[in-house]
Amino acid sequence: MTDNVPEPESSSSGGAAGVPAARGGHLARRALLAGGGAVVVAGAGAGAWWLATGRDDPAQDVRAAAQELADAWSGPGLASAGLVSAPADVEAEYARLTGSLASPAPAVTVASVDADDAGEGTARAALDVLFDLAAAHGAPPGAVLRYRTTARFTRQDDGSWRPVWEPALVHPALASGATFVVDRTVPARADVLGRDGSPVVTATDVVRVGVQPSRTGDPVATANALGAALGVDAAALATRVQQASPDAFVDVITLRRSDYDAQRAVLQPIPGAVFAESTLPLAPTRGFARSLLGGVGQVTAEIVEGSAGRYVAGDVAGLSGLQRTYDERLAGRVGIAVQAQGGSDATSVELFRVAAVPGQTVATTLDAAVQRAADDALAASPADAALVAVDVATGAVVAVANHPVDGGDRALTGRFPPGSTFKVVTTLALLANGLDVGETVPCPPTYTVEGRSFSNFEDEAFGEVPFRTDFARSCNTAFAGLSVRLGDDDLPRAAAELGVGAEWAAGADAFPGTVPSATSAVDLAAASFGQGRTLTSPLAMAVAAASVAAGELRRPTVVTDPAVAEPSAPASAADPALLGVVGGLMRDVVTAGTATVLADVPGAPVHAKTGTAEHGTAVPPATHAWTIGYQGGLAFSVFVTEGVSGGSVAAPLARDFLVRLAAAGGYTGDS
Fold first, then answer.
1. pTM for the full predicted model
2. Is residue 398 in some structural domain?
3. Domain check: are 48 and 130 in the same one?
4. Which of 162, 265, 359, 489 has its CA 20 to 30 A from that of 457?
5. Is 52's pLDDT higher than 50?
């Protein structure tokens, strides 16, 4: 049978093969009986019994019994249908006959009733059966197995009608002992693409390493050897091997083919070790944008349960990141064929077929060269860290790196106080309120607001200096003092004009930041240098840097296909001239401030702002280290969870990133 288009039909619908045809003259009578029309007595059998007993029209009773059968089959199961001649375990026999179609139940309706032989104590009903293979078994939309079958009924001593159990009740083709056989065709998973259209995740050869218990006389020794070679928990592996059946494949680890080949000589001789070759969708390296792209692996019980039949045990699915978010798109839809096979006459009848629907690619904005430079730079981080790079011209996120690679996606979804990197936002708000960067703004050792004292990093004090110097050298007390020039909503408004706390449509899970309106003078002073209640992600601060570099708002994009609805227009827009001033101040940070380590980076001039953000309750408090900035057409944000200061910890990582990128040909934005 050829593949079907949406809403494929069974070859047994209506009055098709397997359903007895109406006998001469009885079709009209069944229609009258089923419809509850006028009483017509035809022939001796049914009519004589009917009139002699004084009972109501038997077709009504048969129809009621048929409806009860249809309701039972559609709901609680055939065991509740009061079947005659049924096996001891009806549901088990039904499951044997129907295989994977046993659950969930089909939709069953009564098509017609034939009570012509009611006088002999028998009747029949035609039932329409519909299995929704799309909703319940993962087939393409519109795929249904629909057919008509016949149920026989017998009259009991009390005059009631009960259905008769027989395999033909389930489907006419099962009369000879055949059963349903359901074949699933799983399509190849689609690639995830980078900015230039080439795959950043594609099918890659892998080798599953496992243990077959029957092949080792010493499971503990086998587990210890594999643990030493692969870095897995040997004790836990030994326990799993000891508890498994003798011929089971006890999974240990899945290796890229290249990684397996490098250890093959060590792994092959280990007693009990077994190997299975396959493919999995993988990125170029294990760490390549891992937190963003996510992983693919064997489905969990929870995924199977929540998949409405799309997945069965042994399938692979997206487990995290974009692979999970866009799993249905990437995976496509399984093809399904249903056959009646076996029985006394060796039946092999195809009842239904629908072709698999291939997965569709997901296109991202990742640039492979920038991503590799980011991954390599973060490998030297002294603590957990993140690095995000954004295209200035478009807001496209071209690199998302986290260290360690399995430590969560702090780059996009982290929520951290931004520290002095937020002074970019505060400066924009102050400029809009009339601040002149040349005016003298004192930088004392401390500044007190309503009894709360604020100080500088390492208790620095620069005295009576121009605001330009306060910015370059990151004076907290100067900004706290200037906070009196700001309204309660000025910082949230300026932040949104730079994309922080604004509405995004990135196509991936990402935190744009929260910048609450000030509730007190103390609250506003703390917020002015990125403390208090303000929280941002590394991506949000990279977006802020990109907006400064572009001279207008940039909002990030991670996924371009499927398209994401554009966010609404911002309530206000920053003055491009003021953004130019902020950019100039960020250049001062590199030439004469806290990020001079970036001054000799090859390529275009670097503009930056460092930051150190206190967090936690320790005394003295722990600090996050930040550096944000831009060079030419690329904006960036570097974040280190535990660092002494942005200038001493995050800025060197930013330098390493930019130097590596320059060595690879630099960033042109044309990839």
1. 0.83
2. yes
3. yes
4. 489
5. no
